[in-house]
């Protein structure tokens, strides 16, 4: 795994920066990092390798935004996320990888359309958290996508966007959600052999770039305009959906 070309190392270094940045400033960008790792490393090993870097970035994010968490929103989502995880397990039992990715890509595009329509219909949009039905739909889809393709980021970004969370509340709530989810996936990754010694060495090399991305992201989050932030989330979610489709 460590015998990589200079271009491959450059791509992984860029992806490591993006991982940190996605956790502290630009949600949805993490899909770009996932795609980069999958393009350079063997598919199974890339999943375990990137998981450890994601957890590292999660730790920085929850520390930076510990005062900006909407715990009520997390509790509202929890049952649906667990249900989505179980549905994902059943789906994986019958679907191949290509079918899984394309199904999620289509669902993500549908989520984007629904979210944009809701935002356009100002008279029908209620400020604050979405209704319980929306939490059930987004939470189930988020649990499903994280189980089958590590693609829950774009889904949950759409939920927090629909809730119209301020930038830091958005980032803090997402940080705690994914920290819990990613840590819970760690024992399964170890048991399945997805985390390897070469992968750990690679993580140690890339970890400083994750930290740099996370710190740089906090600087950006303190200065980014709310409208620009929301547009970036939407654009990067579309990129993630298209990646899964192709």
From TrEMBL:
InterPro entries: TM_pro_TauE-like (IPR002781), TSUP (IPR052017). It is found in: Cell membrane. The chain crosses the membrane at residues 48-66, 73-93, 99-117, 137-162, 190-216, 228-245. Keywords: Cell membrane, Membrane, Transmembrane, Transmembrane helix, Transport. It comes from the Bacteria. It holds the Pfam family TauE. The keyword Protein biosynthesis does not apply. The keyword Transcription regulation does not apply. It is a multi-pass membrane protein. PANTHER family: MEMBRANE TRANSPORTER PROTEIN YDHB-RELATED, TRANSMEMBRANE PROTEIN YFCA. Belongs to the 4-toluene sulfonate uptake permease (TSUP) (TC 2.A.102) family. This is Probable membrane transporter protein. It comes from Microbacterium invictum.
